[in-house]
Amino acid sequence: MTDPHATEPLTPQGTGAAVVTGPGAVGSTEAMAVPVAARSQWWDVWDQFRTHKGALFGAAVFLGICLMVIVGPMLWPLDPTATNMRARYEPISWAHPMGTDRLGRDTFARVMAGGRISLGVGMTAMLLSLVLGTLIGMMAGYFKRLDGPLMRFTDLFLALPLLPLLLVMVILFREPLAARFGIETGIFILVVSAIGVTSWMQTARIVRGDVLTLKEREFVLAARSIGTPSGRIIARHILPNVLSPVMVSATLGIATAIITESTLSFLGLGFPPDFPTWGRLLFDGVPLLERNPGLAVWPGLFISLVVLSINYVGDGLRDALDPRIRGR
Amino acid sequence: MTALVEVRDLKMHFPIHTGLLRRQTGAVKAVDGISFDIREGETLGLVGESGCGKSTAGRAILRLYDITEGEIVIDGREIGSVTQASLRKVRPTMQMVFQDPQASLNPRMTVASIISEPLDEHTSMSRAEKRERVYDLMDKVGLNRRFANRYPHEFSGGQRQRIGIARALALNPKFIVCDEPIAALDVSIQAQVVNLLEELQDELGLTYLFISHDLSMVRHIADRVAVMYLGKVVELASRDDLYARPQHPYTEALLSAVPEPDPAQAERQGSRIVLQGDVPSPANPPEGCNFCTRCPKVMDVCRRVDPAFREVAPEQWVACHLHDPEHAPAGAP
pTM for this structure? Predict the structure, then answer.
């Protein structure tokens, strides 16, 4: 009845490289030495990730865009802010692959320069809101005493009219931050923290809900009966299990952050008007949609591509990190 | 044999908060004053119907809850009233095997990391030593070492329960609470797991509190049996006495419900005692004896006075007025 070989061979997952000892070898010294060459979990994750075509494609597109916005401006000879009144509204050509805008600025150069800011703001703000949201949701879900206060705090933020709040934040902090870090970095910090601080609530609610169900699961009770302190229970048992919903809200968060940044810029609260960001370019292009659609289409296309590719990467990553799916 | 675990008047009440101000308006008396000893090396079976507080009692004894009242002494240490932080040092002595092997294993951890979690928490072994110990434990519970890097979802229910048992054994505990370890398993696997538990008991000298609603299984594994009803222990006796001569009407009814596989025997078994009505709510138990609303032998006194837990025969304790010389009807035992 205690036959260790009573089971069917299970899905050959992650043990492909291992030396499989035959039945009956258990207990012999050989089996003790090489039961399974403990393969790093991350190789399994990578193997699973590779099988997800969409995720691979998304990762490629995302990396391509990142490369373009980081390296592109160094190679492209045209300056994104140089005006040329003789070449306004130029169509697509070799000199201007995406045409020019109403001041004759090269759209390609502007998209690349704007991508730097937009991607930077999007990623950083998303990270910030993710960390904040997960922290608050985790605290509220895990510690019963903090639940009430923290969730009311979340409700408070959800109920706040965000635009006036952002307005106040910008008016209060723009000057000191700009003086401290320089105008560009100062506004970057301001915009990122403004977006991060006002967008963590959804994540917090999702995480709290998940933590509430997870902490009643028996494996958490088992950890407590072992004597694992709360901090390590959270890190070891709860956090890995709330990863999927967090990942989903993260991928959506990037898109929201990029759009919010453009809203801020549009209202004159973010980066200065001559400073290209994707959101800014989009808003500038919208009124000219009939006359020169390229101005709005290009930045819009890049925002969509980034969001889509990150979504796919997130999807693939979520599957790859879940051992239940990984085996299949 | 000396008592390894002493439980005295253990109470676990869960407060009920209602109204706008969340004031406490009552309490669910899940465990309401139970007392027993578990001797070193024995298995105490704890039986009762669903919702009678068996699992809560088991968890309260391990101090997974902050108990309302009472005294718990495990291996000479009083743990009823100490803080959770100072309990950490005592935890290795007492471990638990859970009911649902699917839910009690973290789906994102490998078998090796699940089994070595207690080692990570309480020992300063090196990685290699931990690995060796994990393999050792896997051998002990009959799991192939090759499975060490697999995840719980890849195993069958019985194998998962073995993983749970290996985890409980990792720190060489003296006392293990088995909280319905076989309830979620197939009948064919139940026997395997119970036999494994018995073998481990013989080999390692473990003491079990075996919680179950399966009376035949308890008869197989337990040395003594405690019967719970609505948060109280109504009868505590050695296995043979309890099954041969149940003293409490509730125990009688419970035992009469056990199906007899042999039809010839079933004829002789006699009529089934069918209890009328529902179990009262533990938030609002009846006055007097908890069982008075459903007892076929109820007397007047049962509705007024809560019966004391007294020894009616050597090593057989019952909480029932039928066995109280003061109230016992003429002709009753």
Answer: 0.78
